[in-house]
Specification:
With about 210 residues, this protein is mainly α. The chain has one domain. About 55% of the residues lie in helices and about 0% in strands. It has a two-stranded antiparallel ribbon with strand order 1-2. Helix 5 packs antiparallel against helix 6. The longest helix has 29 residues. The two termini are about 65 Å apart.
Length: about 210
């Protein structure tokens, strides 16, 4: 049996807040701050920022390109779909609209695969649904969709900027316990002597000794 060395985490390590958490908080706050000065809702930009923050500095540029590409694909397709449904007069028929929006995820994903950007498929679908799902009768569909696309792009841009500018810090590794003793190997089972062979049942009894 292999020996096991115990490791412990110090209280600082147990409550460690990684850079991904810090970056997410900063990006969401910046989205809210920008929305405050614009006197607009920061809901969609905040969602985009949470989705976009990554935990690897080496993949920041690639993931940023994927997120921007997915945002553009989902936003443009969403605007076109909303405009088409409004033109056909079926935009506010809820069940039909949900069926069309669900089916439109197929060409969106296939388009991302066709341009060899599978990493942007999820973001494209999220932005497409953000642009197309929430509508009220008083909204102008095209303007509403463009606003949602702009808000999502703002969230993605802020998340990418925060992700690039703030440095990463490595998570401290747990230290081995000083007093942890290795587990001794399992003892081998003692050999059990085989049972004595029974006497044969048909063996004749020994003759009694002659009387002296």
């Amino acid at each position: 049996m292999e020996q096991y060395h115990a490791h412990i985490l110090t209280p600082e390590h147990r409550h460690w807040i990684g850079m991904r958490i810090i970056k997410t908080v900063v990006a969401v706050f910046l989205c809210g701050l920008l929305a405050y000065f614009r006197e607009a809702s920061g809901f969609y930009s905040m969602i985009a920022a949470v989705v976009c923050i990554q935990n690897s500095a080496g993949k920041t540029i690639e993931s940023s390109i994927n997120r921007m590409t997915g945002t553009l694909i989902g936003g443009v397709v969403g605007v076109l779909v909303v405009y088409s449904l409004d033109t056909l007069g079926v935009l506010y028929i809820e069940l039909l609209r949900y069926a069309v929006l669900s089916a439109m995820l197929i060409p969106i994903i296939k388009l991302c695969l066709a341009i060899k950007k599978p990493g942007c498929a999820a973001m494209a679908c999220i932005v497409f649904l953000c642009v197309t799902v929430n509508h009220s009768i008083g909204d102008t569909p095209a303007i509403y969709s463009i606003d949602r696309l702009f808000e999502t792009l703002v969230g993605v841009a802020l998340a990418c900027g925060v992700d690039i500018l703030l440095p990463y810090q490595s998570i401290p590794q747990p230290t081995p316990a000083k007093d942890a003793a290795p587990v001794p190997p399992a003892e081998t089972e003692s050999e059990i002597p085989p049972p004595p062979e029974p006497e044969a049942a048909d063996q004749p009894p020994k003759e009694a000794e002659d009387e002296t």
